[in-house]
Design a protein that fits this description.
33% helix, 6-stranded mixed β-sheet, 2 domains, 4 helices, single chain, alpha+beta, Nuclear Transport Factor 2, Chain: A, two-stranded antiparallel sheet
């Protein structure tokens, strides 16, 4: 049995190409492939952390907003709203004044209120949409009520302060 070896030297040819040109082509192919399949550049850790911190802060504000409304602390509750705040529901659109007075109605008492499943959607550097599920029960003018709905709140940073600009509630189907 014969041992056959193919030895390429600097002067050897493979399909008419010299070894240095083959090596150069191979190196370029590897570099181009690496560039094409490189991991995409995402946010830096400090940017991701900044968005997370802002999101968690806004979730805390959203939760506090509910607590303040349930407790009837009108001044603190209203401080979270932008001047152009409005809400949307199955009954239509409600401006800030009517929405806030409805939330402060002394004839509405909550027995339970659970906010869960929060998601943060960064719309821009100055706008964050928060979505979550609301499950609550209580009395509205002496009549029992239950809430099972998806909620969304749009928070916008204006003059350095995060304010709630929009709130919508959509009944969750069973």
């Amino acid at each position: 049995m014969t041992n056959k070896r193919i030895v390429l030297t600097k002067h050897s040819r493979l399909n008419g190409a010299s070894l240095p040109s083959i090596a150069l082509a191979l190196a370029l192919n590897v570099l181009v492939s690496a560039a094409c399949y490189a991991t995409p550049q995402g946010p830096t850790p400090s940017q991701a952390t900044s968005s997370d911190v802002i999101g968690q802060s806004l979730i805390a504000k959203e939760r506090l907003s509910w607590d303040l409304a349930i407790k009837g602390d009108a001044a603190s509750y209203k401080a979270f709203h932008a001047p152009d705040f409005f809400t949307a529901s199955g009954k239509g659109f409600t401006d800030r004044a009517l929405s806030e007075s409805s939330a402060m109605d002394a004839n509405v008492q909550f027995k339970t209120c659970d906010l869960s499943g929060f998601d943060i959607h960064v719309v821009s550097d100055n706008a964050v949409l928060i979505t979550y599920l609301v499950k609550a029960s209580g009395l509205d003018h002496g009549k029992g009520f239950q809430i099972n709905s998806y909620a969304s709140s749009l928070w916008m940073k204006r003059d350095g302060q995060w304010l709630n600009v929009f709130y919508q509630s959509t009944p969750a189907t069973q």
